[in-house]
Amino acid sequence: MSENCNQNCSSCSDDCTERKEPKTDFSEKPHELSNIKKVIGIVSGKGGVGKSLVTSMLAVTMNRMGYHSAILDADVTGPSIPKAFGIKEKATGSEFGLFPIKSKTGIDIMSINLLLENDTDPVVWRGPIIGNTVKQFWTDVIWSDVDFMFIDMPPGTGDVPLTVFQSIAVDGIIIVTSPQELVSMIVSKAVKMAEMMNIPIIGLVENMSYFKCPDNDKEYKIFGDSHIEEIAKKHNLEVLAKLPIDPKISAVCDRGLIELFDGNLWWLKMSRHFFELV
Ligand SMILES: Nc1ncnc2c1ncn2[C@@H]1O[C@H](COP(=O)(O)OP(=O)(O)OP(=O)(O)O)[C@@H](O)[C@H]1O
User: Fold this and answer.
1) What whole-number distance in Å separates Cα of residue 115 and Cα of residue 86?
2) Neighbouring-strand partners of residue 93
3) 248-258 residue pLDDT tens
4) Which of 157, 211, 250, 260 to mutate to test the pocket of ligand 1 (most atoms within 8 A of CB)?
5) 277 CA distance to ligand 1 middle (Å)
6) Is 216 exposed, middle or buried (CB count within 10 Å of its CB: 0-12, 13-18, 19+)?
7) Calpha distance 231→183 (Å, rounded)
8) From atom 12 of ligand 1, which residue's Cα is the shortest distance away?
9) How confident is the model at residue 23 (pLDDT cuts 50, 70, 90)?
10) ipTM value for the complex
11) CB-based contacts of 199, cutoff 8 Å, min separation 6
12) Which of 89-98, 111-120, 125-134 has the highest mean pLDDT?
């Protein structure tokens, strides 16, 4: 029995011996014309820590290595992926389903902003509708020959991420954090959620870890000291990267040119973990 057992089997995914009700399977099949090999979810305990940036750069890195990458932007209320890739056109469809938009370098992307008339329209929908929209990005979009799909998950551990985890067969997740107070609690929540859903955690990424001053090469910890190593040890996880604050990153994102960012070794180091999933 799970140490967190609340005697309510309907809200639990554990296969324990005490189970009273059969496990409900909420998983959805992708579109019948889709072919997706591996799905990696990028999650964060709270917004604004760089989840979309990590999602985008991982897709760019794998694409540069010759793998067909895709991004499913499940962050419906804060969709920043089309902006980072400079995508302005709208998604189209046929009687068979919806087609993702191809970025300049061939990454397939689907996001709510590719369907809304105006990018600036707010998505003032309740959780179940948002959850269903993300499900449809999985079931109604034709994802052709995708080697690695990266999902920019909605921030937090609430209703919407839960729906996404239950409906989409995610092969592994990466948790993105920043070096601030509360990180320990936020990571613990994300880890518990992944454990409940039986989803492997590939590792942790600390974004905005430090800033390296170009004038004196010194590293400054703008958001305070990092505790990511202790947190990783506590949960028996690997720290995949400690990414610096880099004004060049925000500049390319703002100009829709993320595919031109030359990246650094961190991204290549992270990508080796995806091959372990294959
Ligand atoms: N390491 C970094 N250096 C400089 N700017 C960064 C870095 N990481 C992220 N940013 C910038 O910070 C902003 C927030 O990043 P991003 O959109 O990736 O966060 P998020 O966690 O996905 O947020 P949300 O959950 O609100 O969508 C963006 O403008 C991005 O360009």
Assistant:
1) 15
2) 98
3) 999 999 999 99
4) 250
5) 27
6) exposed
7) 8
8) 50
9) low
10) 0.95
11) 41, 165, 170, 172, 173
12) 89-98
Alpha carbons within 13 A on the beta-carbon side of 75? 28
CA dist list (Å): 156 to 63, 73, 189, 230: 28, 15, 9, 21
> Is residue 204 scored above 70 in pLDDT?
yes
Give me the domains of the chain, ranges plus CATH numbers: 30-273 (3.40.50.300)
Q: What is the pLDDT of residue 125?
A: 67
Looking at residue 270, its amino acid is M
| Interval 228-245 mean pLDDT | 91
Please give the Cα distance from 127 to 188 (Å, whole number).
23
pLDDT value of residue 226: 84
Cα distances from 178 to residues 181, 223, 224, 227, 267, in angstroms, run 9, 8, 10, 10, 17
